[in-house]
Amino acid sequence: MTAIHRHLLHCLAAILLVCCALTLPTACVEEEEMPNTPSGNFEALWRIIDERYCFFDYKKATIGLDWNEVHARYAPRFNDNMSRLQMFEVLCNMLSELRDGHVNIYTAFDTGREWSWQEDYPTNVSDTLLRIYLGTDYRMSAGMRYRVLDDNIGYVRYASFANDIGAGNLENMLSLLAPCRALIIDIRDNGGGLVSTAQELAARFTNEEKLVGYIRHKTGKGHSDFSAMEEQHLKPSSGRRWQKRVAVLTNRGVFSAANEFVKYMKCFPNVIVVGDRTGGGAGLPFSSQLPCGWSVRFSACPMYDRDKQDTEFGIAPDYPVSLTDEDMAKGRDTIIETARQLLCE
Question: What angle do CA 202, 297, 285 make, to 5 degrees?
Answer without folding.
Answer: 30
